[in-house]
Write a structure and sequence with these properties.
By secondary structure, the protein is mainly alpha-helical. It contains four helices and no strands. Helix 2 packs across helix 3 (26-33).
Length: 62
Amino acid sequence: MNRIKEVLEEKSLTQTWLSEKLGKSYNMVNSYVQNRRQPSLEILFKIAKLLKVSPKELINEQ
């Protein structure tokens, strides 16, 4: 599980913005945000860099 949705909301950013920055489709980013699919480590690190947080902050520990 990841916290991408929460971090996007905290920073007032949209999934559309993130999909454009990543060069991924909106549907792919939406599947990450909804936790239907988990991003690869490479993509997770890119998302963290774009959101200016540590990759660890994007992961829910369960």
